[in-house]
Amino acid sequence: MKITQESDYAIKIVLYLSKLDKGEIANAREISEAEKMSMKFALKILRRLCKVKLVESFRGIKGGYKLKKSADDISLRSVIEVIQGDLFINTSLKNINSAKKVETDPVNSLLYSIQEDVKRKLSNTSFKDLRDASAK
Fold first, then answer.
1. For the chain, how big is the Rg over CA atoms in Å?
2. Could you tell me the superkingdom of the organism this chain comes from (predicted)?
3. Less CB within 10 Å around the terminal CB: N or C of the chain?
């Protein structure tokens, strides 16, 4: 399981937006400069986040972006999976379609257990948690 650079930037964008005051929006240039990424890359990620309704966009001169949901309702896992799809620690687990195959192979069984622990941790970590941790 590898978190790609694109996922890393998506996490940074959502975290940035989670820190905005209620009713405040941020434009793509502001986000890209603050998070040290190209404007083109920021816009690409923002489009994907808007498409799945995690982020809302506003057009016009005073346009920009804000979270569509509460930071407490957006998990780290959901943002990563928007960019990368389902997470797998090992490609062999991606193709396993029955629990019996996992149970009969001790290596896959261990890897599957680790994978599920990671997914659970990512699911249980909200952007509110990350925002609060970064404020300390």
1. 17
2. Bacteria
3. C
pTM above 0.70, yes or no: yes
Residue from 122, 128, 24 nearest 73 by CA: 128
Query: For the chain, first and last CA: distance in Å?
Result: 29
Angle in degrees, 0-180, between the axes of helices 76-84 and 127-134, rounded to the nearest 10: 110
- Cα 26 to chain centroid distance, Å, stands at 18
- Note whether 79 and 67 are within 8 A (CB): no
Which regions in the chain score pLDDT beneath 50? none
Residues with Cβ within 8 Å of 46's Cβ and at least 6 positions away in sequence, in order, are: 13, 28, 31, 55, 57, 65
pLDDT at 97: 56
Domain spans in the chain, listed from the N-terminal domain onward: 5-134
Give the C-alpha separation, 77 to 103, whole Å: 25
Helix (H, G, I), strand (E, B) or coil at 33: helix
- Counting Cβ atoms within 10 Å, is residue 8 exposed (0-12), middle (13-18) or buried (19+)? middle
